[in-house]
Every structure is written in C-alpha cells, then in structure tokens.
C-alpha cells in the first residue's frame, strides 16, 4: 500500500469524524488538517511509485549487500524474479551457475565510491548483458547506509558505443571554459603519469571519455601516430578500471615472429611441437584472465591469427596450440595501433569483422603538432622529471619555446621527451643552452637577429653579404654548391671568401693545401 492510499484513507476517516461531531471548533481543525493533507498530496511525490514506473531497472541493497528492493523494470530486463533476489545477499547470487556475473555492489561496499560496470544475467539463453551504475548513500554519521544501482539492458556492445558517442557530441557543444563542466574548468588535465596533458581540446574530451568507460569491460581501440601517447591512454583506462588489481598483460604484435605469436598468445599443450616445454605453457590470454590484455600494434597481426583472435574476443575462450578443449576466460581487451586499419581492410591485410569487434569504443590520440598549445606544459613536465633525475636546474627561454613550436614533431611526445633529456645533459649544470644547440638538434634555422649595426650602408651590406656566404657554405658543404645556391659564379664566391676572411669548407681547405704543396714542388 503506497503513501497516496494511506493519505486518502486518513482523509476519509477524518471526514467521517468531522461529520459525526457537533463541535464547530473541532470541525474547523479537522477541515484545516484535511486541507493540509490535500495540499501535501498535490505537492508530494510518491517516490516508490515513480521508481516502479521507470524504464531503467533499480535495485537497492543495504550496506552489507542484502537486496531490499527491485523495481518492475529490473525484473523485466534481467528476468530475475523478486523472490529470487529480495532478502538475499547479492554476493551469494554471483556466478555463471547462479543469477549473474559482474556487478558493482561489492566494489561499492569496499571502496565507498560510485561504480560503473558491465554485468551478465543467466536467466535466459543466451545470457543477457547490461551495464550498471551504482551509488552509495551514507547516513548522518558518514556510514554506508544504502546502495542504489541503476541497470540498463545492453543488446549489443554497439549500444554502449552509441551512447558514449552521443555523450561526446553533447560534450563538445559545451563551452570548454564553462563552469558547469568541472572536469575541464581548470583548463588542463594531467594523468597519473603527468604526461597526458591537454588544454580544453581533444585530450580533455579523451580524459572525460576515459573516466566513463574505464570502469566498464567494453573493448577499446586506441589509434594515433607513434609516440603520441596511446600507451598512456591505455594505462589510464586500466588504472581507473575495476580490474586494476588484476593482471595487465601487454604484447606487441609486431615484435614477435608470426610463427611464435600463436603459441605466445594462446599457449600450448605438452608435446605440441618439438622443443616445447614438456609441461606445456600458459599463453598470454590465460595469464590475463580476470584482468586486461593490451594488444599493441594490432594492425601488424598476421591474417591467419586474426580469425582466432576474433573468436577469442567474441566467445571469451581460447584453445591452446595442440589442445582440443576450450578454456573459458574473462578478459577486457584494449588494442592499440598507429596503422590506418580501414586502409588495411581495403588492402585485404586486416579483417573487417575483427575491426568492428575491436572498435567498440574508439579513441584517437592526436599528434603533438595538432596540439602545440600543450607543448609548454609538456616541456615543464619533462624538465621537472629530468632535473630531479640529474639533480640540476634547467629552463628554456621564450625564444627557445617558440622555436620548439615551429618544429613538426614527427616523433611526437616521445621525441620531445628525448630531446629535453638530451639538452639537460648538454647544459652541464648551467641551467640553459645556446639557441644554436637547440636549432641544430631540430635541424631548424634560427630567426635572424635584428641588431643595430654601428656602420654605414656599405659596411652593413658587406656584413650581410659575409653572413649570407657563411651560411651557404655551412649548409652546402662546398664552394660550388654554395655558389649554385646563391646563384653566383664560383670564382665570385671564392674571391669574397678571401675578401671577408671566411673559413672555406673542409673540402676546399684540402684542395687549397694540395694546390699549395703542388706549386712548391
């Protein structure tokens, strides 16, 4: 009986009392009470009735995991009957031979934090997948009191992808400096490794997406150029997942010979091939059971293994090399590649069905040249890292930072980190380097210095001419090549070298020395 019915019954009883009494004062008081109850009925929300009519499933447990309530939508979407779950501890109902696997209640009991995970219920054939969002509720003493779980059925994992793609589109429409967006309001993000740094741009969107998908078991495909930070993104997903205390196995699909890759991934039984371990060997899939498997350079996986990988991801089971019995697994997959998989599909070197199986949650990590606004923050991060390592001070000048921003960065963040470590070592504890060292390292030309010349017009022309010839000789390495670059006759360049006392290129010095020795003979 809900509260609306209770209030109606009380009103009827009060009306009967009012009709049976002749006391006008009592009648007025009863009428005031009836009016107050009527107003309360109009304004008050019957929360249980509202929850019962939600399309999302709702489950409420106490602080120990004892199930106190489920709404109609939860029973309909999971096919779990109220009598099968009410007044039972949720922990006792877990397992493929029971009601479900996955879930968030035990995690919330342990961490006292909200959780978001996939789950599978086994009342139907095939089992039904869904995702859960759980929230802890605390009493006035700060103790865990209740846990409220929202369940939504998941027909396919693509539904999850669609939900998050919609979420991302809406997120991009929000002003990046909006105070309603607390995750990006400080204009920057920094990962636990202090490397994934971004300012109100694509990385901020990636960071928000990671926060939402990390607690799930959804497969993730991370793409981007080498050195852009794909591994950092993958590590962030793992570190923020419910599997962070389970194994995280990483494999580079391009670094293992094709003939060994299958046995490395799936393991082998004893006697599977000559030279094999007599006791057989667990593969990386088995080692990653209940944890996460990161498949780096997935685009370089041989075609003959792609179909086996597809089956392993799809069915969550593998068969060892030389074996005949399938082994059930529970693994979260994260794939990384710097290849264009769509081009590989067209070229026939990557399976389309595997691509769609991996591309449930796609994440593209932009190259450094597309987010140069983050370069200074990245520099500060790496400078702090290596000055602490080598116990010295170092800083770039503003001109050097501007010079770094003109570079194309083909090696992305990895190249930036290597260069910063190098220049810190080259600074020899002085805390800075010459601009020429940095420009030489990046193979860039320094901007011309605008100095006030203490000379007349003809003197300034001579200084400029000397500088121009010196730069041409340095970049070309020979007099003839320098003359061609300057569109001058080699004899003219030779004459001006003597006029301005310019040091000739090494080849010219050898030729001059040789001619001098020849004339002396």
Care to describe what's here?
Helix 20 crosses helix 21 (490-499). The protein has 22 helices and 13 strands. It is of the alpha/beta class and 521 residues long.
Give a concise summary.
The chain has 521 residues and is α/β, with parallel strands linked by helices.
How many independent structural domains?
5
Strand content: 5-15%
Give Rg in angstroms: 35 Å
How do the strands line up in the largest sheet?
2-1-6-5-4-3
Termini gap: 123 Å
Number of helices: 22
In the CATH hierarchy, the third-tier topology of the largest domain is known as: Rossmann fold
Report the CATH superfamily of the largest domain.
P-loop containing nucleotide triphosphate hydrolases
Q: Report the CATH C-level class of the largest domain.
A: Alpha Beta
Based on the coordinates given, report the CATH architecture of the largest domain. Answer: 3-Layer(aba) Sandwich
Structure classification: alpha/beta
| General form | elongated
SSE arrangement:
Blueprint (H helix, E strand, L loop, with lengths): L2 H18 L3 H20 L3 H6 L4 E6 L4 E4 L1 H7 L3 H4 L14 E3 L2 H7 L3 E7 L6 E11 L5 E11 L2 H17 L28 H12 L6 E4 L6 H10 L8 E5 L5 H9 L17 H4 L4 E5 L6 H13 L1 E2 L8 E2 L3 E6 L3 H7 L4 H7 L2 E4 L10 H16 L7 H8 L6 H15 L8 H8 L14 H20 L2 H8 L3 H10 L6 H15 L1
Parallel strand pairs: 7-12, 7-13, 8-9, 9-12
Antiparallel strand pairs: 1-2, 1-6, 3-4, 4-5, 5-6, 10-11
């Amino acid at each position: 009986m809900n509260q609306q019915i209770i209030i109606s019954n009380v009103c009827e009883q009060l009306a009967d009392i009012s009709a049976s009494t002749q006391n006008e004062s009592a009648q007025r008081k009863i009428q005031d009470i009836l009016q107050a109850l009527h107003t309360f009925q109009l304004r008050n929300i019957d929360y249980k009735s509202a929850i019962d009519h939600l399309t999302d499933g709702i489950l409420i447990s106490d602080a120990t995991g004892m199930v106190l309530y489920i709404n109609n939508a939860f029973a309909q979407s999971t096919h779990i009957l109220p009598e099968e779950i009410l007044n039972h501890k949720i922990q006792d109902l877990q397992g493929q031979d029971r009601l479900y696997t996955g879930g968030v209640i035990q995690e919330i009991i342990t961490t006292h934090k909200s959780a978001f995970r996939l789950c599978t219920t086994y009342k139907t054939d095939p089992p039904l997948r869904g995702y859960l969002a759980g929230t802890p509720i605390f009493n006035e003493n700060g103790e865990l009191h209740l846990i409220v779980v929202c369940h939504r059925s998941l027909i396919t994992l693509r539904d999850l992808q669609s939900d998050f793609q919609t979420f991302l589109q809406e997120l991009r429409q929000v002003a990046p400096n909006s105070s309603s967006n607390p995750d990006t309001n400080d204009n920057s993000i920094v990962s636990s490794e202090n490397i994934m740094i971004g300012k109100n741009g694509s990385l901020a969107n990636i960071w928000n997406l990671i926060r939402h998908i990390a607690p799930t078991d959804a497969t993730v495909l991370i793409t981007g150029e080498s050195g852009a930070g794909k591994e950092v993104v993958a590590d962030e997903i793992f570190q923020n997942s419910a599997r962070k205390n389970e194994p995280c196995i990483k494999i580079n699909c391009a670094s293992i010979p094709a003939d060994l890759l299958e046995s490395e991934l799936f393991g082998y039984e004893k006697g599977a091939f000559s030279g094999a371990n007599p006791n057989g060997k667990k593969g990386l899939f088995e080692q990653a059971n209940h944890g996460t498997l990161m498949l780096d350079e997935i685009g370089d996986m041989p075609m003959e293994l792609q179909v086996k990988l597809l089956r392993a991801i799809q069915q969550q089971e593998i068969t060892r090399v030389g074996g005949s019995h399938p082994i059930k697994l529970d693994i979260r997959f994260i794939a990384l590649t710097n290849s264009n998989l769509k081009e590989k599909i067209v070229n026939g070197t990557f399976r389309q069905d595997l691509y769609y199986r991996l591309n449930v949650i796609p994440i593209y990590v932009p190259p450094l040249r597309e987010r140069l606004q983050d370069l200074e923050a990245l520099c500060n991060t790496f400078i702090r890292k290596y000055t602490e390592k080598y116990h010295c001070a170092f800083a770039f000048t503003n001109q050097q930072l501007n010079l770094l921003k003109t570079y194309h960065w083909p090696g992305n963040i990895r190249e930036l980190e290597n260069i910063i470590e190098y220049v810190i070592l080259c600074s020899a504890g002085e805390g800075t380097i010459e601009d020429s060292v940095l420009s030489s390292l990046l193979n860039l030309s320094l901007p011309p210095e605008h100095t006030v010349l203490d000379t007349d017009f003809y003197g300034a022309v001579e200084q400029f001419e000397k500088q121009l010839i010196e730069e041409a000789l340095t970049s070309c390495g020979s007099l003839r090549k320098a003359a061609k670059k300057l569109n001058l006759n080699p004899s003219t360049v030779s004459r001006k070298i003597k006029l301005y006392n310019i040091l000739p290129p090494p080849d010219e010095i050898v030729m001059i020395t040789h001619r001098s020795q020849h004339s002396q003979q």
